[in-house]
Amino acid sequence: MNVYCLKFTNNKYYIGSTAKDPMIRFSQHKSCCHSSSPANPKLANCWKKYGDPEIIVMGTYEEEQHMIEAEQFYLNVSIEDPDCLNLNPFADRGPSQKGKKKSPEARANMSAAHRGKKRSSETKDKISAALTGIKRSPEWKVKMKSANANPIIAVDPQGNETHYSSASECARQTKFSQQTISNLVLLGKPAKYGRCKGWSFRSNR
Question: Rounded to an integer, what distance in angstroms lies between the CA atom of residue 92 and that of residue 78?
């Protein structure tokens, strides 16, 4: 069970999850995007214009709930990003919902409703387990190790930059966890929700 990212050469990207081999899901996306009625027109248009994207496995999980919680994390920090091609802000909704266009007001209401839900301690533990990952792909482990070890530049919502020697030092001196910092370094986009809304982090190699 994997959370993956389809990244195009123009920096547009799509986040998804699958219990299958990621390449099987890749082929399904490609087939759907080249059909006469694609489920996600934004993804289809980008695919047709820029060709096959790179597929990046963000994490591999043994339990479906962990996979869904991890995908939701990435959607939470990406869904309002103009480069994000996802239509549905919820990881636990069926594919049919992803193809339906929603007004900005409807999407804002859905996002607000989701953010307002209180999570139980059990759910928070599941999220933590999902983001930590029971198993990681070799590619992800290398990228995460690099994100944790290299100097970090933290950029606040006003654009002010602060340099840190590593993700762990950044975590010690800020209100954000090392895992969140590392995930945002790999994602390469400012967070859209939560305590780190508006913040971005990048490796200073």
Answer: 16
Q: What phi and psi, each to the nearest 5 degrees, are found at residue 161?
A: -105, 140
Q: How far apart are CA 1 and CA 129, in angstroms?
A: 14
Q: Is 92 left (phi over 0), alpha (psi -120 to 50) or beta?
A: alpha
| Structural domains of the chain in order of their starting residue, each with its CATH number | 2-115 (3.40.1440.10), 138-203 (1.10.10.10)
Q: What is the pTM of this model?
A: 0.52
Q: Give kind and range of the element (H or E) at residue 163.
A: strand 161-164
> Would you say 107 and 36 are in contact if contact means Cβ atoms under 8 Å apart?
no
Q: Mind giving me the DSSP string for 27-71?
A: HHHHHHHTSSS-S-HHHHHHHHHH-SPEEEEEEE-SSHHHHHHHH
What's the average model confidence in pLDDT over 192-196? 67
Are residues 1 and 19 in contact, defined by beta-carbon separation less than 8 angstroms? yes
- For residue range 77-90, what is the model confidence (pLDDT) as tens digits? 788 788 889 888 88
Task: Round to whole Å and give the CA distance between 130 and 140.
Answer: 14
Separation CA 180–CA 92 (nearest Å): 21
